[in-house]
What does this fold into?
Amino acid sequence: MAKTSAENASNDAEQAPSGKGRPTPTRAEREAARKRPLVPDTKEAKARAKAQLAEQREKARLGMAAGDDRYLTVRDRGPQRRFVRDWVDGGWNIGEWVMPIMVVVLLLMFVNIPIVQVYAYAVLWAFVILTVIDMVITSIRVKKAARRKFGDRMEKGLGWYGAMRTVQMRFMRLPKPQVKRGTRRSL
It folds into this structure.
């Protein structure tokens, strides 16, 4: 029995590889293996980061357009601001037509008939004055409606916020209108 275990031990010793089985790396090879850029600058990483950023921006844009509070600017956040947006978007305002009227007046200025230019300019100024009056009235009405709904704990600037929203064309407003026209009375 001792003979067989001694033979097995000698066979194992013969079969076991001596050393580590590979050459020792040189110092230059070890230093090269440790070196790597601080910031990986591969084309794939840049493309992946760019695609991820574009995806995040698109998600934020859609969230803001939908009126999701997580993506809104500080100016647009909160239930009172949402109420003002819905109140303004639920009705008709003169201010929405300022930009189209200005474009028409600009085109009429190219007509070389002085009386047309004078009347176009007068119409523009009359429209701007009506818009300012509408903004003031809207501001007062928005504050009154917000006071009825929220009581005395109203945020500052709700009237101005609503008035400035009236001069934006409806399709250009951000966040996008969430209510249809004519729903102001139910708010």
User: Anything to note?
Assistant: The helical segments are 2-15, 27-34, 43-66, 79-89, 98-109, 114-150, 158-166. The CA atoms of residues 64 and 73 lie 8 Å apart. The chain has seven helices and no strands.
